[in-house]
Design a protein that fits this description.
This protein has 638 residues and is of the alpha+beta class. The chain has a domain of 185 residues. Strands 13, 14, 15, 16, 21, 24, 25, 26, 27 and 28 form a 10-stranded antiparallel sheet that branches. Helix 11 crosses helix 12. One of its GO terms (molecular function) is sphingosine kinase activity.
């Protein structure tokens, strides 16, 4: 197989050479003579030292880019064909999981054990300076022995070492020795979370394609990383909130939400309706797959980790769910006259809140609804009378490297993913009970594949058989044996009673440090009174994929960024403000103030009407105050 010419992250030869190898092996390429690879697994990654006709080149796949690996065996399509004979068609060749060999009819003529290593590496795109993550599969074919079990033992040794390094746990050195022949011990020693991920999917979020998106784009990545999950489909508003509030959520290892910011809001507030909210937040990280209209949290997480989110939002967010990493995140306690809420994103009053709520009627067009309604609100501009007070934050984290504005990559109309070819290796049985052979994605994205194999000891290397590999996105096992799908009609879902949810339900969480909402504030607060175009508080960088609202915000900095636009701002400056939201330059517009605070209070004039939103959800119009609690929750990060 000809190696792809795409750029791959490389490591200096000296650095690679100084890293002690956990495992090392010589592999060959079936389609090339005089070419071999010295493959070394180190604590830094997978080093590939290529020797070809006297020339040498060393490349390294960084350990942080590897998400998983699996052992396979070739399987005959039918009893009448020999899949491994010279001249066999690739479509005649299938692979099965090692654990399935006793239930499946495998190819007894091919004793090879195949180790598939899945990585998502940073690559340069055609656009100057832009990067994206692309899928790469490295296939190591172990066939040095005459028996499949012996080859599987060698492949399993590599699998164990890779999984330990990826999970950041010690590699059991006693099992790395070739003299250790206990296959069951090698397989059983692989680290892994015994609990499943809880996936809560909102099928109506954004354009209403949540199920299809999860099936085609997220499930395969979870499968590659061997992350079992249990999926529940929400069937009405507040379903996720009640689910989290009433269930034994500790049977899962994390909460992964498929939808927009709305389902995150439900889950966060469902946690704070539990008496054990502290334990839940400490033990269960939150993840989000962006299928909504706004997707502010997903973009903020990727921006904080400097990931090329706009090139492929679903991929970057899915990688967050499989990397087993978590990062602290601030939460804000919000108090109104009638309820207490906990917010992870923003509180809004005025222009942006109006756009958010009133554009709901255009939800079918996705995120474009915000742009369309922004024009409508500019034509019919409103002002709001009231009072805004805030408690200044004296300690603001400094700018990192002097950078303030986003330098992310332009969004594309089509979410990218590696293409899928064929109808054998590329097909997977999804969690919804259907088989799918095709992934949506860019037609110019080609997945790198490197197929290597060992030679037969004391024999000449076998002829150039067709290797059991897929040229593109290969999803061999859906994890259906370990993952489960719960439809909206199941009996256990009926236990969720969303009709009787009361806004006055008990909310737990940290106690407020602020004066009562009806009390006067101390002199340490700053108060502004008059007419406002908008008041918007944010604690994440992004309110949506294209709303770079608070350029200096961090996931856990203990700061609320309060943006105030008073009445009197010119229309041209307001247009400049809205246009600058995508790049972060809106904060420099005349008439716009961005203030770092620890707490704030909004008090609209009595008898007036309008919209106030918390994380995009409308709350009662009236007095509201909020304060930040640093690092209260944790989120999954890539």
């Amino acid at each position: 197989m000809v190696e792809s010419k795409h750029h791959r992250r490389t490591m200096d030869d000296n650095v690679s050479g100084n890293s002690s190898a956990v495992l090392e092996e010589i592999f060959y390429v079936t389609s090339r003579r005089n070419t071999y690879y010295k493959v070394r697994l180190t604590e830094k990654g997978l080093s590939l030292h290529k020797e070809h006709n006297g020339t040498a080149k060393t490349e390294t796949i960084a350990l942080g880019d590897i998400i998983g690996c699996r052992c396979m065996r070739s399987k005959r399509r039918n009893a009448g064909s020999c899949a491994c004979r010279p001249g066999a068609s690739r479509s005649q060749l299938k692979l099965v999981e090692s654990a399935e060999i006793h239930q499946s009819q495998y190819d007894e003529h091919d004793t090879s054990a195949y180790l598939y290593i899945y990585a998502y590496t940073l690559k340069k795109t055609r656009m100057k300076g832009a990067m994206r993550r692309e899928r790469m599969t490295i296939t190591l074919r172990f066939r040095s022995f005459d028996k499949y079990e012996d080859n599987l033992r060698e492949a399993s040794r590599w699998r164990l070492a890779i999984k330990c390094l990826v999970a950041n746990v010690p590699v059991p050195k006693n099992l790395m020795s070739p003299s250790h022949g206990n296959l069951e011990t090698l397989i059983g020693a692989c680290p892994g979370e015994n609990r499943k991920l809880l996936v809560l999917l909102n099928p109506k979020s954004g354009p209403g394609r949540g199920r299809e998106t999860f099936q085609k784009r997220i499930h395969p990545i979870l499968s590659e990383a061997e992350r079992p999950y249990e999926i529940h489909i929400t069937k009405c508003p507040n379903y996720a909130r009640e689910f989290v509030r009433t269930r034994d959520i500790y049977q899962w290892c994390g909460l992964l939400m498929v939808g927009g910011d709305g389902i995150v809001f439900e889950v966060v507030n469902g946690i704070f309706q539990r008496p054990d909210w502290e334990k839940a937040l400490r033990e269960l990280p939150l993840g989000v797959i962006p299928c909504g209209s706004g997707n502010g949290l997903a973009k903020s997480i990727a921006y904080a980790r400097e990931e090329p989110y706009d090139r492929n939002p679903l991929l970057i967010s899915a990688l967050s769910a499989v990397k087993c990493k978590k990062t602290p995140m601030d939460l804000v306690r919000v108090e109104t006259r009638n309820q207490i809420l906990f917010s992870f994103l923003s509180v809004g009053w005025g222009l942006l809140a109006d756009i958010d709520i009133e554009s709901e009627r255009l939800r079918a067009i996705g995120g474009q609804r915000f742009t369309v309604w922004s024009v409508a609100r500019l034509i019919g501009l409103r002002t709001y009378k009231g009072k805004v007070s805030y408690l200044p934050c004296n300690k603001v984290p400094p700018l990192e490297n002097g950078k303030m504005y986003c330098k992310d990559y332009p969004a594309e109309n089509i979410l990218s993913h590696s293409r899928s070819y064929g109808d054998e290796l590329d097909s997977f049985y999804d969690a919804f009970g259907e088989s799918s052979n095709e992934l949506n994605g860019d037609n110019d994205v080609i997945t790198e594949n490197l197929a290597l194999e060992t030679q037969i000891d004391r024999r000449n290397r076998l002829g150039s058989f067709y290797s059991a590999i897929s040229a593109k996105s290969t999803y061999f096992s859906t994890g259906s044996a370990n993952s489960s799908y719960h439809s909206i009609g199941e009996n256990d879902s009926a236990e969720i009673d969303t009709e009787n949810i009361s806004k006055n339900q008990v909310m737990y969480g940290p106690p407020s440090t602020l004066p009562a909402l009806t009390s006067q504030l101390s002199d340490s607060w700053t108060t502004m009174q008059g007419e406002f175009i908008m008041v918007h508080a944010a604690y994440q960088t992004h309110l949506g994929q294209d709303y770079f609202f608070a350029p200096r915000a961090r996931l856990a900095d203990g700061v609320i960024w309060l943006l105030i636009v008073k009445a009197g701002i010119t229309r041209s400056n307001l247009v400049q403000f809205l246009l600058g939201l995508s790049s972060g330059t809106h904060v420099t517009c005349p008439g716009v103030d961005m203030i770092p605070v620890k707490a704030f209070r909004i008090e609209p004039i009595e008898g007036t009407n309008g919209h106030i939103t918390v994380d995009g959800e409308e709350v009662d119009y009236g007095p509201l105050q909020a304060e930040i609690f640093p690092s209260l929750a944790s989120v999954m990060t890539p």
